[in-house]
């Protein structure tokens, strides 16, 4: 076996397929672009969907990649099994309507067995095939695989629902009897079964059917090849590692963790080994994901990041690590990946900052969780129960990051168990909620083959002119058919040249009209998109018949176009200003450029202060007022990067790129349209800034006349305010507002004081009126001219004087009613809960509420029901 590093193995795979005519596609960001069906990029093919469904035709139908991916559907198994990971790399080769089974199988066998490449012993390889796929079996035998090394398995059919599907063939490597942990007659003891001896290393999917919405399987117009080889598994074979974790992809993090631990060593204790593996795996995943723009939060991708960080920290504590340590593993991860992902090390400081901040936050949460867990243990014992209920265990897991195993261990130390079925039921509910959130989107479209075949040359000339008088109509698409003439209301058109910009990079498409030779309008252009082969595809509303081969006069709406390009150029200035003010880690996460406003999403850890926003806005306007020329150069990507051009993760660049420079302030790759000079933008004004997702902020802004209109409206509103405040000069408005706020504060304090006195006077009479309700004593009262704050203060007085078992107070005025319920601490221990009582009586005031076991409150809109609610409380206690 060759002695190769993970970097060498990755490169060897890519080099092999490059020799076979494949284009090496760079690894895309883990954060999907324009794909609501995915939380993460979870495979190599996930980035190729647009090619397989025919939305876009690739320049080369043969592609290969090493794609970083994340899967978290079985995170519980990470660290406990040899092969499960959250972050992994999928090596793959892809064919879009080019070669098929014979070539895919022949090349796979060559890569694996040729001495020039992997050089594996062919006798150690086993292949599984779909029973009805006789071609695959024939081709494997033709390259030299023995018939008894080819196994038919009914499950070898790749199908994820609507879209491309087909049979597949899996390749297994026999690691030898030393890895065989099953009995010879065990039903899983075969290549393809659940065992460690035969390691699956590659899956080749022969995508040859369309799975239709009707549930049928129709032959694809263009057959495809999609393969996936797990880098981590292949490395374990080359490096003769028992598991994936004993390879150069994970061992550096494990060794570093050993140095942080309390004299713990990997390979000594099975329980400790699990903790070391979890930490190494999760450190890799969070480091790369944060580098790609994901940030910890309570939703979506952010929730996954937070969960991984917390799970790693808890396992660090099991190894005796008491202080923040996970952030120190980020540079170690960067070193293991630097040969192919140098950007991880480049962002080291930012990644460390994010992880360290989350570690500090969780260490505080962890202490709160431990206290809560102790309270749960105490209350479970007090109720004479043997198990902590599943819902509570899930809350500890979901809110405080406690793995089920940790809760189980702490409970066992106290002589208790945990309701595992209840926990799993809550976990299933959460997974279902996540599935439902994405159920409306389709994973992959059915192939639209019509436009894939249309390969006419079509030139976009809108960078130079917005008026083309002799555009030849090449294609007319009506109801998914190519026609020579159309009178349909809506059709799609392709011309030999066009001034209409097709929607791309967040910039909306141009609008305009199509005229005939007489200057009469024949159609309105309402949208322009890119056809699969790159032509500008015009969607039009027709007024007259359109004829293929005829020439037309194409006219772009100049005002619409001008307003869009002002806003687009402003996004470039905004992007660079954000980097300058907030830091170089800031990356564009999306944009929308319309004629009336611009929207710009960016990754950022933490809030954006008003002061920073003001700096950003001022910086953009400084560039506008400098009247700097906007220059565009067409070059190759390598030269563009040397010029300092910023590239976006979400964009794939061809052989030629447009580099847009605004002086020495901003340089970006961009195919959009722009003003000639920044002075054309006129003015820039931020309208709003907000958070729109985990670590993603959004700025909305306007330029030119829209910015002037906004400022003018704000000025008029300020004048109205000054008139109502009776202030003669606008500059004095803030001072007058502060004075009014102080006056209101003083009046509120006086009101609270008076209400407290009145409530106290009423309380003396209320507290003397103690009643018996069943086995409990209760005090109830309707306090007039009070608020919730006064009710809570009276409840504190009641508790400190131990006046009864239960207190229920209400107050109301106008359309508002409030209730407070308090329960003596000694009664809480016996199962009496304020929250249960408040939920029972709150409907009487048309409201709802909740709270702690010893104190709860409710609000409603029916003060007339207060007396009924108080009586209902007495009756509720009588029935306890």
UniProtKB/TrEMBL annotation:
Keyword presence, ATP-binding: yes
Binding residue positions for Zn(2+): 568, 572, 670, 674
Cofactor(s) needed: Zn(2+)
Domain notes: Consists of three domains; the N-terminal catalytic domain, the editing domain and the C-terminal C-Ala domain. The editing domain removes incorrectly charged amino acids, while the C-Ala domain, along with tRNA(Ala), serves as a bridge to cooperatively bring together the editing and aminoacylation centers thus stimulating deacylation of misacylated tRNAs.
This enzyme's EC code(s): 6.1.1.7
Domain called Alanyl-transfer RNA synthetases family profile: residue spans: 4-713
GO MF annotation terms: alanine-tRNA ligase activity; aminoacyl-tRNA deacylase activity; ATP binding; catalytic activity, acting on a protein; transferase activity; tRNA binding; zinc ion binding
Coiled coil spans: 711-764
Protein name: Alanine--tRNA ligase
GO annotation, cellular component aspect: cytosol
One Pfam family cited in the UniProt record for this chain: tRNA_SAD
PANTHER family per UniProt: ALANINE--TRNA LIGASE, CYTOPLASMIC, ALANYL-TRNA SYNTHETASE
Main localisation: cytoplasm
Co-factor: note: Binds 1 zinc ion per subunit.
Key words, A-Z: Aminoacyl-tRNA synthetase, ATP-binding, Coiled coil, Cytoplasm, Ligase, Metal-binding, Nucleotide-binding, Protein biosynthesis, RNA-binding, tRNA-binding, Zinc
Gene Ontology terms: biological process: alanyl-tRNA aminoacylation
Catalysed conversion reaction: tRNA(Ala) + L-alanine + ATP = L-alanyl-tRNA(Ala) + AMP + diphosphate
InterPro entries: aa-tRNA-synth_II/BPL/LPL (IPR045864), Ala-tRNA-lgiase_IIc (IPR002318), Ala-tRNA-ligase_IIc_anticod-bd (IPR018162), Ala-tRNA-synth_IIc_core (IPR018165), Ala-tRNA-synth_IIc_N (IPR018164), Ala-tRNA_ligase (IPR050058), Ala_tRNA_ligase_euk/bac (IPR023033), DHHA1_dom (IPR003156)
Gene: alaS
């Amino acid at each position: 076996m060759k002695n190769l590093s993970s970097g060498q193995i990755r490169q060897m795979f890519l080099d092999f397929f490059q020799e076979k005519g494949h284009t090496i596609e760079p690894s895309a960001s883990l954060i999907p672009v324009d794909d609501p069906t995915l939380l993460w990029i979870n495979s190599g093919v996930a980035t190729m969907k647009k090619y397989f469904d025919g939305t876009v035709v690739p320049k080369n139908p043969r592609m290969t990649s090493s794609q970083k991916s994340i899967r978290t559907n079985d995170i519980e198994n990470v660290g406990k099994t040899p092969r499960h990971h959250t972050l992994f790399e999928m090596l793959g080769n892809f064919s879009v309507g080019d070669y098929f089974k014979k070539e895919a199988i022949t090349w796979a066998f060559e890569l694996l067995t040729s001495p020039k490449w992997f050089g594996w012993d062919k006798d150690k390889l086993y292949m599984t095939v779909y029973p009805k796929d006789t071609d695959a079996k024939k081709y494997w035998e033709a390259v030299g695989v023995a018939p008894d090394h080819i196994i038919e398995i009914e499950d070898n059919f790749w199908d994820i629902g609507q879209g491309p599907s087909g049979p597949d063939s899996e390749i297994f490597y026999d690691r030898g009897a030393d890895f065989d942990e099953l009995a010879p007659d065990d039903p899983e003891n075969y290549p393809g079964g659940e065992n460690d001896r035969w390691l699956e290393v590659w899956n080749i999917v022969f995508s040859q059917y369309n799975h239709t919405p009707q549930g049928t399987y129709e032959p694809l117009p263009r057959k495809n090849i999609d393969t996936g080889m797990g880098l981590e598994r292949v490395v374990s074979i080359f490096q003769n590692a028992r598991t994936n974790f004993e390879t150069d992809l994970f061992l550096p993090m494990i060794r570093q963790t050993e140095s942080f631990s309390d004299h713990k060593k990997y390979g000594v204790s099975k329980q400790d080994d699990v903790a070391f593996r979890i930490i190494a795996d999760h450190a890799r995943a969070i480091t790369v994901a944060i580098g790609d723009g994901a940030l910890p939060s309570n939703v979506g991708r952010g929730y996954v990041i937070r969960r991984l960080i917390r799970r790693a920290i808890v396992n660090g504590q099991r190894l005796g690590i008491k202080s923040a340590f996970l952030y120190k593993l980020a540079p170690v991860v960067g070193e293991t990946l630097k040969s192919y992902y140098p950007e991880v090390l480049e962002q080291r400081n930012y990644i460390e900052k994010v992880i360290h901040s989350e570690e500090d936050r969780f260490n505080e949460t962890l202490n709160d969780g431990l206290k809560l867990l102790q309270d749960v243990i105490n209350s479970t014992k007090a109720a004479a129960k043997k198990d902590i209920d599943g819902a509570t265990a899930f809350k500890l897991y979901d809110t405080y990051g406690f793995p089920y195993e940790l809760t189980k261990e702490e409970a066992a130390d106290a002589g208790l168990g945990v309701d595992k079925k209840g926990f799993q039921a809550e976990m299933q509910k959460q997974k279902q909620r996540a599935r439902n959130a994405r159920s409306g989107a389709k994973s992959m479209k059915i192939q639209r083959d019509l436009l894939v075949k249309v390969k006419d040359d079509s030139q976009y000339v809108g960078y130079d002119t917005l008026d083309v008088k002799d555009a030849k109509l090449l294609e007319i698409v009506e109801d998914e058919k190519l026609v020579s003439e159309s009178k349909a209301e809506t059709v799609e058109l392709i011309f030999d040249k066009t001034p209409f910009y097709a929607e791309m990079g967040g910039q909306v498409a141009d609008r305009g009209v199509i005229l005939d030779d007489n200057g009469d309008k024949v159609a309105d252009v309402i949208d322009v998109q890119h056809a699969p082969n790159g032509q500008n595809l015009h969607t039009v509303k027709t007024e007259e018949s359109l004829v293929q081969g005829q020439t037309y006069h194409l006219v772009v709406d100049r005002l619409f176009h001008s307003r869009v390009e002002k806003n687009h150029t402003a996004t470039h200035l905004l992007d660079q200003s954000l980097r300058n003010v907030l830091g170089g880690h800031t990356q564009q996460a999306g944009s929308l450029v319309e004629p009336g406003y611009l929207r710009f999403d960016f990754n950022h850890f933490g809030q954006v202060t008003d002061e920073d926003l003001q700096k950003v806005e001022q910086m953009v306007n400084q560039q506008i007022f400098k009247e700097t020329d906007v220059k565009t150069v067409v070059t190759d990507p390598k030269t563009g990067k040397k010029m300092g051009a910023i590239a976006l993760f979400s964009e794939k660049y061809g052989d030629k790129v447009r580099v847009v420079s605004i002086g020495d302030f901003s340089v970006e790759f961009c195919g959009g349209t722009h003003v000639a000079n920044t002075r054309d933008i006129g003015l820039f004004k931020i309208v709003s800034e907000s958070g729109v997702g985990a670590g993603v902020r959004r700025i909305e802004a306007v330029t030119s006349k829209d910015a002037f209109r906004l400022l003018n409206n704000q000025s008029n509103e300020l004048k109205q305010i000054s008139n109502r405040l009776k202030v003669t000069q606008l500059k004095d408005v803030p001072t007058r507002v502060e004075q009014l706020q102080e006056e209101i504060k003083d009046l509120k304090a006086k009101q609270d004081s008076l209400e407290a006195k009145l409530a106290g006077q009423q309380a003396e009479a209320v507290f003397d009126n103690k009643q018996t309700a069943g086995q409990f004593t209760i005090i109830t009262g309707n306090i007039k001219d009070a608020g919730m704050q006064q009710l809570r203060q009276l409840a504190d007085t009641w508790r400190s004087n131990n006046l009864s078992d239960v207190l229920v107070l209400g107050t109301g005025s106008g359309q508002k009613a409030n209730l407070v319920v308090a329960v003596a601490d000694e009664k809480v221990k016996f199962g009496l809960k304020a929250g249960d009582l408040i939920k029972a009586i709150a409907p009487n005031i048309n409201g709802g509420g909740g709270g702690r076991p010893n104190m709860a409150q409710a609000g409603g809109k029916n003060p007339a029901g207060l007396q009924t609610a108080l009586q209902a409380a007495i009756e509720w206690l009588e029935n306890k």
